[in-house]
Amino acid sequence: MGYTFSKSITDSDNMPDYEFNNWNYDPELNITFSPFNLKRQYNIGFYLDLYRGSKIFNDVYHEADRVGNQSFMKFGLILQPELYF
Fold it and tell me: Which segments in the chain show pLDDT lower than 50?
């Protein structure tokens, strides 16, 4: 579940008529894999985050299903120090 701070979007004078919903929901997938260890001090690996949210606005010019959704994909490398307590 998420909330979009839409004040800067809804206060714009350039936008056509639309309905905006600040609340969105749907699943998010996060995967982290750290198979490498460098000198027993750092874990090295990869991460992937995927999100496809619910519809937050209705666009009068685009009526197709699932148009107006938020989504993102992030991926990259991780360098994490080993922590010993």
Answer: none
